[in-house]
Fold this sequence. Notes:
By secondary structure, the chain is of the alpha+beta class. Helix content is 22%, strand content 38%. The chain is globular, with a radius of gyration of 11 Å.
Amino acid sequence: MSNSGVCFVNGKETRIQKITTSLSAFGLLMQFSDGEKYILWRDSVSDEHYRQLLLSLKRERYAP
């Protein structure tokens, strides 16, 4: 994910529209500009990477 909200999902470039973090203890609900939605489960990535992602999202203000 870049600072502009652009990331690659399943091999295609897309832009993050909204991320719901209300249940971040379990995972993140990510909505992209093309309407696709994905859940990133917390246990699907390392704790370090998950924490880094949460901090990055808070800085970029994608999350409410």
